[in-house]
Structure formats: structure tokens, C-alpha cells
């Protein structure tokens, strides 16, 4: 079974208290996030890491504070979450090489990674039989990712000890809807002990 990991929005602006759009408690996820990415590298599992890559005047800033502006420190992923061989897929339509990449960084300018027009072709190239998802924020970007991945018809698992929410009630609704739609809740230990 070919597995692909989806690492959602694990960027400095979200993960750490000094970040522009800090998710409270997200820094405590770092050991779990790093363990998943290391496990993927050790087992030749591709990691798709979506990242916000905003322009300074992105429309999203009408609803959210300015964050993850392309090229800023806050837009970066922490070094512990980067794998050695990476490819970047911007939001501009094109054919981007991913051969040999352990980590494929998919840029986006909205909450939904599926707004990157290159994602469908990437999923086709990766040809996964199963997706494992983790990151932030459960009721926003993670929700869009798991909803879109469920539409592929492939099994989707969500590592509940490697996600963080802003609103616990909204996050619980997201998890309930995910399970009702056929998704499976899992843990880092369960994923890494298979």
C-alpha cells in the first residue's frame, strides 16, 4: 500500500508564540510533527507539505491578520520539519518536477490547498493508496485538506495528536464530519508502528 503524508501549514507564523497567527499550544506539536516527517523519510513515504505563501496584499488579509508573507521568516517551515530533498510547487499552473523529492512543498494563497491548480496532477503522479494528514489548524486548513482528499476515494487518516485547533467545538465538528464521511482517526504512534 502506497502511503502519502500531508503536512498542513506547519509554518513558523502558526506554530510559535512569536508567530503572526500563532495557534495556541501548536509548539507542543513539534516532536510529533518531526517524528512523522522523519518516519516518512526513513520509509520512503512522500510528504506533501502545504504552505501559505501570501503576497503582502493578499485578499485573505481582509479576514485574517497578515501572516506567512512569501519570503519572510514567519512563512518558513521550522528546520526540524524539512526533509533533505525537496521540490516546490507554486500556485502558478505548470509541470513541476518532483522526481527524487522526499518532501513536496505546495504553495497556496487561501485556506484550501486544493486551490493550487497543480495539486490534482501531483496526486495523480503520487498515486497514493492512503493519505495520513496532520498539522494546523484543524477546523480550517486541515478540514479543507481532509475533505478534498476524501473526494479522491482513497482512505484518509488524521493523526489526532499531531493537529491543533483554535476553536475546540468547531474542531470537534470537523472530526465528527470527517469520520461520518469515511475518514479514520489515528495517532502518531499507530502510524509509525505499522
Description of the structure:
By secondary structure, the chain is an alpha/beta fold. The chain has one domain (3-192): Rossmann fold, CATH 3.40.50.850. Helix content is 29%, strand content 21%. It contains 6 helices and 7 strands. The protein has a 7-stranded parallel sheet, sandwiched between helices.
Uncertain ranges: none
Structural class, from helix and strand content?
A: alpha/beta
- Briefly note the CATH topology name: Rossmann fold
Major sheet description: 7 strands, parallel
Level-1 CATH class name: Alpha Beta
Shape: globular
Architecture blueprint of SSEs:
Layout: E1 3-8, H1 12-15, H2 30-42, E2 47-52, E3 86-89, E4 103-108, H3 119-126, E5 130-136, H4 138-150, E6 156-164, H5 168-180, E7 184-186, H6 188-192
Parallel strand pairs: 1-2, 1-5, 2-4, 3-4, 5-6, 6-7
Helix pairs in contact: 4-5
Amino acid at each position: 500500500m502506497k502511503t502519502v503524508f500531508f503536512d498542513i501549514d506547519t509554518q513558523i507564523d502558526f506554530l510559535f508564540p512569536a508567530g503572526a497567527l500563532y495557534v495556541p499550544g501548536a509548539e507542543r506539536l513539534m516532536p510529533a510533527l518531526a517524528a512523522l516527517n522523519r518516519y516518512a523519510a526513513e520509509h520512503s513515504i512522500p510528504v506533501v507539505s502545504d504552505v501559505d505563501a501570501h503576497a503582502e496584499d493578499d485578499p485573505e488579509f481582509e479576514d485574517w491578520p497578515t501572516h506567512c508573507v512569501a519570503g519572510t521568516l514567519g512563512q518558513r517551515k521550522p528546520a526540524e520539519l524539512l526533509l533533505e530533498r525537496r521540490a516546490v510547487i507554486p500556485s502558478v499552473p505548470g509541470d513541476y518536477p518532483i522526481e527524487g523529492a522526499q518532501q513536496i512543498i505546495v504553495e497556496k494563497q487561501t485556506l484550501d490547498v486544493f486551490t493550487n491548480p497543480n495539486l490534482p496532477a501531483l496526486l495523480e503522479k503520487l498515486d497514493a493508496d492512503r493519505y495520513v494528514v496532520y498539522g494546523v489548524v484543524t477546523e480550517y486548513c486541515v478540514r479543507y485538506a481532509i475533505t478534498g482528499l476524501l473526494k479522491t476515494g482513497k482512505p484518509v487518516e488524521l493523526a489526532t495528536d499531531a493537529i491543533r485547533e483554535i476553536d475546540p467545538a468547531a474542531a470537534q465538528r470537523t472530526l465528527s464530519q470527517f469520520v461520518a464521511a469515511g475518514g479514520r482517526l489515528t495517532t502518531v504512534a499507530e502510524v509509525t508502528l505499522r
